[in-house]
Design a protein that fits this description.
This protein is an alpha/beta fold. It folds into 2 domains: about 150 residues, Medium-chain alcohol dehydrogenases, catalytic domain (Quinone Oxidoreductase, Chain A, domain 1), CATH 3.90.180; about 140 residues, Rossmann fold, CATH 3.40.50. The chain is built from 12 helices and 15 strands. Strands 3, 4, 5, 6, 7, 14 and 15 form a 7-stranded mixed sheet that branches. A 6-stranded parallel sheet has the order 10-9-8-11-12-13, with helices on both faces. A two-stranded antiparallel sheet has the order 1-2. β4 and β5 form a beta hairpin. α4 packs across α11. The longest helix has 16 residues. The protein is globular and about 60 Å long. This is NADPH:quinone oxidoreductase family protein. Pfam families: ADH_N, ADH_zinc_N. InterPro entries: ADH-like_C, ADH-like_N, ER, GroES-like_sf, NAD(P)-bd_dom_sf, Quin_OxRdtase/zeta-crystal_CS, Zn-ADH-like_protein.
Length: about 325
């Protein structure tokens, strides 16, 4: 079969190599999956660089989120068990962690429903306890994780402010349903948020960026607001001033979604059921901006790493797998 492999760490476009390899053999408790679609996530790029908390042994195949098909024909969502990731024709995954793919979504959309939407659901509902009528600020609102947070925020009845970088991403954020869109390249984010909220600030701030975005969050969070720290796509890990959190009376909440898979997997299943229901009634629909063939995966991962994409870019090992099941 064909699979992308990383033999040394570096930029995805330089270290990912497409090769003919043996089909992976499932271990105990694992199943073999035909990859119908693989969604590209920022951690795929970080793993190529050797900068992610999970460091699979070299060589490995990236791809942490797929819609796959079991040997008995079931269509499922899975996180492949590395080193046999999803940018390949076949992958392996833990049998007990398989989730049914929603009938309302095609393969590419189903592949993109898992990590970003689970992360956003847990961040907004489990950690921040977002309530209807509150104001939600989403950094990188046109990205893979941010677009999920926007949709889930709107589904929860929140007023959503999206922060993006550039006119193209601003248009995407508007199409996603943001009530207010702020282009950080053209506007003063802090001033724009205060203007949009009458000086009150945002009740919940969803931050997958870090760095300057976090500094803006601390200046725009409302009284008794909650800042959800999801990641550091901007490359800089901030050092919060805890005296500032004390004086302004806000909370800083960390979210490592992967821990729920080991600490409380029943919550992951519950979250998936909520997402399937939302997808069935059209309240959420993953933004799949591009569907690329397997041969173009390395270039696509590099563009995700460079922040040059919107929504999710999805790899289709077989072209016919782009349509609904």
């Amino acid at each position: 079969m064909q699979a992308w492999q990383v033999h040394e760490n570096g930029e995805p476009g330089e270290v990912m190599r497409l090769a003919d390899v043996e089909q992976p053999v499932p271990g105990e408790g694992q199943v073999l999956l035909k990859v119908r679609a693989a969604s590209i996530n920022f951690p795929d790029a970080l793993m190529c660089r050797g900068l992610y908390q999970t460091k699979p042994p070299l060589p490995f195949t990236p791809g942490v989120e797929i819609c796959g098909e079991t040997e008995d024909g079931r269509r499922v969502i899975a996180n492949p068990a590395l080193p046999h990731g999803g940018f390949a024709e076949y992958a392996v995954a833990d049998a007990r962690a398989l989730l049914p793919a929603p009938d309302a979504l095609d393969d590419a959309e189903a592949a993109a429903l898992h990590i970003g939407y689970q992360t956003s659901w847990f961040g907004l509902h489990r950690r921040a306890r977002l309530e209807a009528g509150e104001t939600l600020l989403v950094h990188a609102a046109a990205g893979g994780v941010g677009s999920a947070a926007v949709q889930l925020g709107k589904a929860a009845g929140a007023t959503v402010i999206g922060v993006v970088g550039g006119a193209r991403k601003a248009e995407v954020a508007r199409e996603l349903g943001c009530d207010v869109v702020i282009d950080r390249r053209e506007q003063d984010v802090v001033a724009a948020v205060k203007e949009a909220t009458g000086g009150r600030g945002a009740d919940v701030i969803y931050d997958p960026v870090g760095g300057q975005a976090y500094a803006q969050s601390a200046k725009t969070v409302a009284f008794e607001g909650r800042i959800v720290v999801v990641g550091f796509a901007g490359g800089e890990i901030p050092s919060p001033a805890l005296n500032h959190a004390l004086i302004k009376n806000y909370s800083i909440l960390g979210l490592h979604w992967g821990l729920y898979n080991t600490k409380n997997p029943k919550l992951v299943q519950h979250c998936h059921e909520q997402l399937v229901e939302l997808a069935a009634r059209g309240a959420v629909k993953p933004l799949v901006s591009e569907r690329v063939p397997l041969a173009a995966a390395a270039d696509a991962v590099q563009r995700v790493a460079d922040g040059a994409t919107t929504g999710r870019v999805t790899v289709l090992p077989s072209p016919e797998n782009g349509a609904a099941a």
